[in-house]
């Protein structure tokens, strides 16, 4: 039987919509969250529907996820970010036993079983030092676009320790390093190593085994991916379009 | 069968009596001097039966429940905390202590009027904060005679005669000090009665908690906070001991009648340490999932005194009176009292988090729990020590655990919205949805 479902992931900075038919992705869309969540969600949904050549009435069920899921204007159900991440990754990689989800304002570590059921989880909340916002702030301090932070860090030949535990003090540490003529690529690596260190600590708290997947917006940063691999001393799996995994998991949840 | 759930439920019949006893306690303390009586202050963990030997006109103000009452009133609490910080005390100190000091600095009693200065302080050193608490009170209020007992006798599974002696010798010294300080003659009969009352109230409270092993639980923890608090205020009084027996009978009857605390119980949890007192509504939020906190080591073991029963279960400790022991003199009363109090479960984890993990795992098993909520309570260094270790131990024992950060007495350190999100996720991992959700 044909069943079309929609997953809507309302994050702190972006809204992602995925439309799926019996678990197969039909269309996706990402828009900035802005200040008007309802309008942005509607825009993302309209664009995804247009892309899939569907009417909204043709979608059987919608499930919302993300930090803003309670304010989603079009939803039949909801699933937590943790549940959506585990479900979405399990669909893509059955051997996945741990998901690291690093978005703009929050990092999460999720331990899951072979069915994508969550066994344990940890959040990094109320602290920018383990989230994408930290990378954004440090890119500003380095006066480079965020997109260049990762590639720049990959040119680094020397690990520079970053001691500050807080985004505010880390920014002043970056400025100090700039004044000390530390190569910018080394500073970029130090920033990403620092984020990775906090996220890895959280992952170790919940415990993990292979395979480990990295999703969320920060998974698009190649320097951060390398920092995570270095820190974990193992390979990690990064899916295509990692920022859509939560919405994908929500669409799958809607189908259940 | 309830209209909204599976079980029938009913309010506690003795609820009004609880409120009355608590109100009277705080009024008695405030009005003690109007009756030519004495006021003393000290921790809820102190050996409170001992000052009872000074007469029947001696009233206490125990510090932690008083501070928790302040914390429940978020507006007053914030003023207390800010007053303490303005006076130069650090924000990361014990939140109870800061609320208490703030009440003195503002000279406002949480139950109306100005802060009633005690005539003497009767305290013990259960943690670093308790060791310093009343030293600062004396700084703030002027000289107040102050007696403190050191209770570092080690865990109860290593109890030995010389450890009991260590406490009993201090108690004898304390009684001499009380006589000298107040100018009163000490009455051993009143001491013996108070000690017996305390045996009775603390054993009965443990018995009450055992009824929550029943499914559905007759009590939920938010209500239990209002009940156990009497034991933190006045556990040595006849009124509290009698009330707990009345409550025990009612709770037993609720079990017999199948009366549940919440109608939709389907997930049994326990919490840990003091809750964030300004946000007890989180317990009501849990009920939207049919989740009930049936208690905690904190609510069971801070006041309750327990023992291993012949069938291997945890149950109320048999009182000396039930054993047929006749208490004849001061020394015997103090020895029994020291031994009894050192077996308090909440003392044990000051010595090792592993002892606490064992007790928590035991509760989780015997009370048929589905999960455990751990409060990383920044407001209490004493009861928070080792919680991360407890988490690992409980997970290893096979229980799902959710940890959240907060503060029992400083609302600025508790993010209610985020804790709800965390709870949503925990419920989802347990496969439990809110009522009405498919």
What does this structure look like?
The complex is a heterodimer of chains A (256) and B (438). With 256 residues, chain A is an alpha/beta fold. Chain A folds into two domains: 1-93 and 240-256, Nucleotidyltransferase, domain 5 (2-Layer Sandwich), CATH 3.30.420; 95-238, Nucleotidyltransferase, domain 5 (2-Layer Sandwich), CATH 3.30.420. In chain A, 41% of the residues lie in helices and 21% in strands. Chain A has eight helices and nine strands. Chain A has helices at residues 37-52, 81-92, 132-141, 146-153, 167-179, 184-206, 222-232, 245-255; strands at residues 4-10, 14-21, 24-32, 61-65, 77-78, 98-102, 107-112, 118-124, 212-215. In chain A, α2 packs across α8 (245-255). Chain A starts with a strand and ends with a helix. The model of chain A has no long low-confidence stretch (mean pLDDT 90). With 438 residues, chain B is an alpha/beta fold. Chain B has one domain. Chain B has 17 helices and twelve strands. Chain B has helices at 15-31, 63-72, 74-86, 95-106, 128-141, 161-182, 188-210, 221-234, 238-257, 281-287, 297-301, 330-342, 345-348, 353-366, 381-384, 387-396, 416-429; strands at 8-9, 38-42, 58-62, 120-125, 146-150, 259-260, 267-271, 291-296, 306-308, 314-316, 371-377, 401-406. The longest helix of chain B is centred in the middle third of the chain and has 23 residues, at 188-210. At the A-B interface, α2 and β8 of A face α17 of B.
């Amino acid at each position: 039987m044909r069943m079309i479902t929609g997953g809507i992931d309302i994050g702190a900075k972006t809204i992602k919509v995925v439309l799926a038919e019996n678990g197969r992705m039909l269309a996706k869309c990402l828009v900035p969250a802005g200040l008007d969540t309802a309008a942005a969600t509607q825009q993302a949904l309209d664009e995804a529907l247009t892309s899939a050549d569907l009417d909204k009435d043709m979608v059987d069920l919608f499930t919302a996820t993300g930090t803003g899921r309670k304010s989603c204007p079009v939803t039949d159900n909801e699933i937590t970010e943790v549940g959506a991440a585990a479900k979405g990754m399990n669909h893509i990689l059955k051997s996945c036993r741990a998901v690291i989800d690093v978005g703009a304002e929050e990092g999460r570590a999720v331990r899951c079983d072979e069915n994508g059921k969550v066994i344990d989880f940890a959040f990094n909340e109320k602290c920018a030092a383990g989230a994408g916002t930290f990378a954004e702030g440090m890119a500003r301090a380095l006066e480079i676009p965020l997109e260049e932070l990762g590639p720049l860090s990959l040119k680094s030949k020397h690990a520079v320790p970053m001691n500050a535990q807080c985004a505010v003090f880390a920014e002043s540490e970056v400025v100090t390093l700039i004044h000390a003529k530390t190569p910018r690529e080394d500073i970029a690596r130090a920033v990403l190593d620092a984020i990775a260190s906090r996220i890895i600590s959280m992952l170790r708290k919940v415990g993990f085994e292979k395979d480990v997947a990295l999703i969320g917006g920060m998974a698009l940063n190649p320097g951060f991916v390398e920092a995570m691999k270095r820190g974990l001393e193992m390979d990690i799996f990064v899916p295509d379009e990692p920022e859509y995994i939560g919405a994908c998991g929500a669409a799958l949840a809607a189908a259940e | 069968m309830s209209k909204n759930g599976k079980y029938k439920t009913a309010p506690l019949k003795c609820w009004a009596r609880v409120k009355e006893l608590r109100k009277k306690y705080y009024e008695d303390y405030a009005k003690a001097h109007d009756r030519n009586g004495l006021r003393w202050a000290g921790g809820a963990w102190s050996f409170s039966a001992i000052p009872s030997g000074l007469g029947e006109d001696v009233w206490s103000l125990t510090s932690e429940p008083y501070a928790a009452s302040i914390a429940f009133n978020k507006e007053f609490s914030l003023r207390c905390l800010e007053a303490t910080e303005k006076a130069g005390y650090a924000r990361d100190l014990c939140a109870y202590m800061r609320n208490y000091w703030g009440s003195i600095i503002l000279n406002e009693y949480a139950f109306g009027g100005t802060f009633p200065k005690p005539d003497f302080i009767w305290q013990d050193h259960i943690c670093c904060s308790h060791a310093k608490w009343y030293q600062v009170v004396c700084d703030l209020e002027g000289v107040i005679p102050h007696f403190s007992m050191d209770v570092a006798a080690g865990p109860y599974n290593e109890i030995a005669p010389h450890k009991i002696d260590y406490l009993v010798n201090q108690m004898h010294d304390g009684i001499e000090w009380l006589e000298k300080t107040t100018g009163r003659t000490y009455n051993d009969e009143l001491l013996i009665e108070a000690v017996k009352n305390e045996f009775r109230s603390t054993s009965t409270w443990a018995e009450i908690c055992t009824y929550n092993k029943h499914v559905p639980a007759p009590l939920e923890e938010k209500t239990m906070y209002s009940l156990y608090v009497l034991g933190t205020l006045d556990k040595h009084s006849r009124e509290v001991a009698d009330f707990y027996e009345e409550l025990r009978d009612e709770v037993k009857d609720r079990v017999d009648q199948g009366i549940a605390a919440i109608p939709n119980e389907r997930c049994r949890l326990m919490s840990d340490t003091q809750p964030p007192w300004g946000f007890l509504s989180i317990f009501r939020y849990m009920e939207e999932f049919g989740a009930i906190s049936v208690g905690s080591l904190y609510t069971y073991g801070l006041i309750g005194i327990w023992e291993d029963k012949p069938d291997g279960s945890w149950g109320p400790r048999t009182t000396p009176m039930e054993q047929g022991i006749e208490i004849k003199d001061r020394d015997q009363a103090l020895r029994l009292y020291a031994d009894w109090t050192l077996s308090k479960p909440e003392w044990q984890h000051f010595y090792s988090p592993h002892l606490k993990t064992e007790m928590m795992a035991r509760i989780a098993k015997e009370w048929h729990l589905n999960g455990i909520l751990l409060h990383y309570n920044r407001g209490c260094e004493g009861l928070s020590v080792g919680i991360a270790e407890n988490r690992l131990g409980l997970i290893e024992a096979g229980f799902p655990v959710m940890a959240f950060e907060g503060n029992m007495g400083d609302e600025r350190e508790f993010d209610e919205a985020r804790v709800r999100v965390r709870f949503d996720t925990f419920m989802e991992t347990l496969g439990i949805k809110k009522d009405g959700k498919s």
